[in-house]
Amino acid sequence: MSSSHEPNASSPEAKHIWDSLQKEMIPYLLSQLPDELLLEGREPELFVAVNQALYDKYVSEGSVIPQDIQFQKQLDICSQMPALKRLKNKEALLKSVFDPTQPQSAIVATSPFSHLRSSAKILALDQVAAYRETLRARHRKVVATNGCFDLLHVGHLRYLTGARGLGDFLWVGLNGDASVHELKGPGRPLVSEADRAELLAAWRVVDAVTIFPEVRATSFLRAVQPDIYVKGGDYTVDSLNPEEAAALRDCHAQIEIVALVPGKSTTNLVKKMAENKALATKEHKETKE
Q1: Cα–Cα distance, 218 to 249 (Å, whole number)
Q2: Are 205 and 195 in contact (CB under 8 A)?
Q3: Among candidates 143, 121, 147, which has minimal Cα distance to 266?
Q4: Residue 72 and residue 269: Cα distance in Å, rounded?
Q5: Rounded to the nearest 5°, which phi and psi values hold at 165?
Q6: Residue 68 falls within a domain, yes or no?
Q7: For 95-144, how does the pLDDT look when each residue is reduced to its tens digit (9 = 90+)?
Q8: Cα separation, 174 vs 200, whole angstroms
Q9: What is the pLDDT of residue 244?
Q10: What is the mean pLDDT of the chain?
């Protein structure tokens, strides 16, 4: 795997690069990895993400360490990490990082690195409290908001971008399919809760997404205990649901109203599609006559 012109792993140049990487490893990895990967049960994803970050840095440093030695060093590091020590298939997982043409194991196939940053952001309600504690320990300023987010559009993006700017961690509570149907009526949601969650999580401004089954976000808010809670410009502090307002008071959340983008809504899009369909049907009928 190494070429003849590459320095030996014990050479001063190679040793300097590896020592530098080891010294910077922890802060570097923490800056690169989604915080959600530190949750229990995400060890395979964490392993791939850690090694992808290490490999990327190895390449950016000039790849002066022979690749087979770099491979072994990364494997040794992860074998010493308590969270990764007992993980099976470490070599197969690592090969997929070093050489994307290698056949992927089942674990990698179901959790490719390219999707880690979005899939890792989606947390179940029963995971929220524990993860919130890790954010509190890191002194993260958590902003929360909630909604249906059915058929995402630029209004959603601008709203969430404004909300994210009020803190350094944006947690979106997402109404489940049954509650969207209850809130919005027949034919809604247009997009399933799983797809809506995945789409939201793919946006950089969103740090975490949690689906809740009820119409009201009370359970979500009590679990997240946000520092700041954001609602759209069609709300006021006084118009908040009493149960949700009580949950926010209990955690001393600051309430902020972020302006909505005029004319940008899922309801308007659905109306426009219905009008276009009716117009197309009319024109088709007139053409046949």
Answers
A1: 12
A2: no
A3: 147
A4: 54
A5: -70, -10
A6: yes
A7: 877 775 554 443 333 333 334 445 678 899 998 998 898 888 878 899 99
A8: 9
A9: 96
A10: 78
Answer yes or no: do 41 and 149 share one domain. Answer: no
Residue 134 domain-assigned (yes or no):
yes
Q: How confident is the model at residue 263 (pLDDT cuts 50, 70, 90)?
A: low
Q: What percent of the chain has pLDDT over 90?
A: 31
Q: Which of 207, 232, 249 is nearest to 36 (CA)?
A: 207
Nearest Cα to Cα of residue 53 among 23, 75, 31, 36:
31
For 262, the token pair is 């005029």
Tell me the CATH number at 132: 3.40.50.620
Q: How far apart are CA 266 and CA 173, in angstroms?
A: 17
Alpha carbon distance 119, 273 (integer Å): 31
Do 17 and 51 share a domain, yes or no? Answer: yes
The crossing angle, in degrees rounded to 10, of helices 43-60 and 67-80 is 140
Query: Which residues are bridge partners to 172 per DSSP?
Result: 145, 209
> Model pTM greater than 0.90?
no
Whether residue 245 is predicted with pLDDT greater than 90 in this model: the reply is yes
**Measured between alpha carbons, how far is residue 155 from residues 126, 159, 165, 180 in Å?**
30, 6, 16, 18
Task: HSE, CB side, 13 Å, CA atoms: give it for residue 220.
Answer: 25
Of residues 53 and 224, more confidently modeled: 224
In the numeric block, which tokens belong to residue 90? Answer: 């470490």
Please give the residue that has the higher pLDDT: either 47 or 147. 147
User: What is d(CA 145, CA 153) in angstroms, rounded to the nearest whole number?
Assistant: 17
Average pLDDT over residues 35-62: 75
* Contact yes or no for 216/183 (Cβ under 8 A): no
First to last CA, the chain: 73
Determine, yes or no, domain membership for 285. no
